[in-house]
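[Automated response] Your request has been received and processed.

Submitted sequence:
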Amino acid sequence: MKGFYPPVEPYDSGLLDVGDGNEIYWETCGNPDGKPAVFLHGGPGGGVLPGFRRFFDPAAYRIVLFDQRNCGASRPHAGDPAVSLEHNTTPRLVADMERLREHLSIDRWLVFGGSWGSTLALAYAQAYPERVTEMVLRGIYLVRPEDEAWAFTPTGAAHLFPAEWAAFRDAIPAAERDDLVAAYGRRIHDPDPAVHLPAARAWMAWELAANTLLPVEPPKLDDTALLAFARITHHYIGNGGFLPAEGLLAGVDRIRHIPAVIVNGRYDMKTPPGQAWALHQAWPEAEFHIVEDAGHGGSEPGTLHRLVEATDRFRA
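Generated structure:
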């Protein structure tokens, strides 16, 4: 079974001015003359982690990673409640990717994304299909109303994580629980740390409650990173992911010629496999894998095997 490649350090990095007062952090690692591939992190707002470099053979790939607007090492950082998210939208993230590609003098690249990264990958490929050689997608997130209902109402994942849901729900007064997303938004975006920090902690505890089939220790985030993650995630959820009204499935005809692999855990409680199946039904040419012993995490053994198998196959 395939696993992660050994740790690798960047050979180049920088900050790229993408307009609207924003700079995004980027890094490249692996083989400077290798096949270009870009990794899209999840969240939105999660930022890049060193382990994300290890999905690719560093001898074969020129691996590009970047922190999306207002998170990670990008500036300004959403951990400052005074930082506006007005210019943080999916079309602008797509434009940032294209500016980064041009900045790095890359003609075409493989696009790899998981969870929210799969959303952004689909949006980018549909906007710039001529710039994408292949796609590797994991934990498909389509950001449809029914997908949000699964995550943020008592009729979805709450049934499988009742204690975690109760903690998430009970952090909001009973009178406001008819719309938990809106109630959290009022608190997460409040400038007072006594208001926004408890709300951000409760929001992120629910976000991270169901990442893997078997429980693992959640990542440790300081308050600044935690607030940025919560603010950006809520910002996108509250705005339908800033996607077109017809959604991502309507644009599949623009990318169906691109070789692609879709991977989803059978017991993914964050992005249940129905979303991956819906994408595959619209895009039958894409290779499709359900991993029987996995949840949402990209590092779970069966999922990791399928992802690295795909990048290995596409490296030639």
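Summary generated for your ticket: The CA atoms of residues 69 and 88 lie 6 Å apart. The longest strand covers residues 22-30.
If you did not submit this request, please reply to this message.
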